[in-house]
Write a structure and sequence with these properties.
Blueprint (H helix, E strand, L loop, with lengths): L3 H8 L3 H11 L5 E5 L6 H17 L3 E5 L6 H8 L7 E6 H10 L11 E10 L1 E5 L8 H10 L4 E5 L5 H12 L4 E5 L3 H10 L4 E5 H10 L3 E5 L26 E8 L4 H15 L2 H9 L3 E2 L4 H22 L5
Length: 323
């Protein structure tokens, strides 16, 4: 805890010494973990599982702070402009960090320039789902139904700029334009409406859908990875559904604003690494359809670079664009 006397003493120190003192004291107050989605979505589910353990490891509360909107851009932009003191971190993902640079005409942040990558922490597939009352049981059925339906079939996603949005654009092209995007403010709200039958087709992350697939409240049509997901083993892959070469995952990682001290980056990396090494945490993630995937800051930066380059031509070929 910083007392008034300690704070005054720190202010009286030379700047370099004061910064060093602040780094050594970190964290002496709660840390906010900003997520690019609403409560109940995939990012919220994972962040809360990890934040609970990281809080114990560092002896300070990590507060999960959902900030949905604009395909994750609002949360990402917010953290890019936060103080570089380790108290505001981003639980970022493939959408705002790798897809949106090609999908959006303008971004108010740069995924590589404006952040200090700390660690990749997890990945999972997304899944094409339908309400049980919907006629399609396979991906081929769905595309055929979309071609035959006047005006097309609406499909829900967690929002504009998500990989689910991009996948829907690819499927719509295969269906002759027969799928119409309906963006939600996160995977949780989209899944809720799918279960209620308010919308009959959706593409969402596996974590918010997994329990509903098991309970029969939703029917899985295809997962995005080349191999079937253990948490939804009866759901075929996109490749099995006839989309050759389709193999993609949503990945998540923790980032800090640019110029956050290296010592703080190292401490956060170690804390998440310790949490992800625990069998109980890995099992809790696995039950949600999530695979733990820990990395160094350098490897996480290379992943972001590689994914930006990988997805840019896919976005262009899909014709998806957000002005």
């Amino acid at each position: 805890m910083i007392t008034r006397r300690r704070a005054a003493a720190a202010l009286a120190l030379p700047p370099a010494v004061a910064v060093s003192w602040a780094v050594r004291a970190w964290p002496d107050r709660p840390v906010r973990l900003i997520i690019p989605g609403p409560p109940g979505g995939a990012s919220d589910i994972m962040a809360r599982i990890l934040a609970e353990e990281v809080s114990r490891g560092l002896g300070q509360t990590f507060v999960v702070d959902p900030r949905p909107g604009v395909g994750g851009n609002l949360a990402t932009d917010y953290v890019s402009k936060a103080a570089a003191d380790g108290y505001t971190l981003l639980f970022g993902d493939i959408g705002p960090l790798a897809l949106n640079p090609a999908l959006f005409a303008r971004l108010t942040y740069d995924p590589l320039r404006d952040f200090e990558p700390i660690a990749q922490v997890a990945l999972f597939p997304w899944v094409v789902v339908v309400h049980p009352s919907f006629e399609a049981t396979t991906l081929s059925d769905l595309l055929g139904s979309a071609r035959r339906t006047p005006g097309g079939i609406p499909f829900a996603t967690p929002g504009v700029g998500t990989p689910m949005h991009l996948t829907g654009a690819i499927l719509s092209e295969l269906a002759g334009g027969g799928l119409t995007h309906v963006p939600y403010r996160g995977g949780g709200p989209a899944t809720t409406d799918l279960i209620a039958g308010q919308i009959k087709v959706g593409i969402v992350g596996l974590p918010p859908a997994a329990q509903h697939l098991r309970a029969g409240r939703l029917r899985g049509i295809a997962v995005s990875t080349a191999a079937r997901a253990p948490a939804a083993a009866d759901v075929p892959t996109m490749q099995e559904g006839g989309i050759a070469g389709f193999d993609a995952s949503v990945w998540y990682g923790v980032l800090a604003p640019r110029d956050t001290p290296a010592a703080i980056v190292a401490r956060v990396n170690a804390a998440f690494g310790d949490a992800l090494a625990l069998p109980a945490i890995r099992e809790r993630l696995a039950q949600q359809g999530v695979t733990a995937a820990f990395s160094t800051p350098e490897i996480f930066r290379r992943l972001i670079e590689t994914e930006i380059a990988r997805w840019a031509p896919v976005v262009r070929a899909s014709g998806a664009r957000v002005e």
